[in-house]
Amino acid sequence: MEHNPKNTALVLGGGLAGMAAALNLAARGHQVILADSAPAFGGLFPLLDNQFPTQSCGVCFMNCQTPTYCPFIQAELHKNIELVPNATLTAASGEAGDFMVRLAVAPSSVNPSKCTDCGACEVVCPVEVTREFGDGLETRKAIYRAYPKSVGKGYVVDRAACTRCGECVKACDANAVELDMAGSERLAQVAAVILAPGGRTVDASVKGEYGFGRYANVLSGVKFERMLAAGSPSSGKPVRVSDGNTPESLAFVQCVGSRDPAAGRGHCSSVCCMFSLKQALFAKDRSPSTKITFYYMDMRAFGKDYEKYVREAEAVGIEFVRAMPSIVRLDPQTQNLLVSVYGQSGLTETPHSMVVLANGFECSPETAAAAKLFGLDTDLAGLKPTDELSPCGTKTPGVFAAGVFRGPKDIPEATAEGAAAAGLAAALMARPDESGAPLYPTPADFLDEEPKVGVVLCRCEGYTEKFINFSELAWIASKLPEVSFVETIDHACSKKGMEECRRLFGQHEPNRLVLASCTERIVGDLYSFMFKEMGVHPGVFSAADLRGVARSGVLDDAAAEIACAVSAANATTFSTPRRVTAQDNVLVVGGGATGLATALSLSELGHTVHLVEKTGELGGNLKSSFKTVEGSDPKAWLASAIEKAKNNPLIQLHLRSRAVESKGRIGQFTTRIENPEGSVELLHGAVVLATGAAEVKPKGHGYGQSPRVLTQKELEGRLAIGDFPGGRVVMLQCVESREIAENCRPWCSRVCCTHALKNAREILRQRPDSDVRVLYRDLRAYGRFETAYQAARSEGVTFTAFDLKTRPEISAGADKVKVAWAEPSYGGKATFDADWLVLSVGMAPDAVDTAELARVFGVETDAGGFFTEKNPKAATTDFAKPGVYLAGLAHAPKHASEAMTQARAAAARISALLAAKTLEAPANPSNVSANICSRCGVCVDACPYGARELDFEHNRAVVDEIVCKACGACVTACPNKAARQHGASPAQLYGMIDELL
Amino acid sequence: MELSFYPGCTAHSTAWEFTKSTQAVMEVLGHKLTEIDDWNCCGGASARAINRSVGLGLPARNLLIAEKSGKPMLIPCAGCYNNTRRAQHAFEKGDEEAGRLAGTVGGKWGGSIEVWSFVDFFEKPGILDEISAKVKKPLKGLKVVAYYGCQLLRPPAVTKSSNWENPTALEKACEAAGATALDWSYKVDCCGADMGISHGHNAGELCSKLGEKAAEAGADAIVVSCGLCQANLDMRQAKTKLPVVYVTEVLGAAFGHSGASSWWKKHLIDPSGLFR
Question: What is the DSSP secondary structure assignment for residue B94, as one 8-state letter?
Answer without folding.
Answer: -
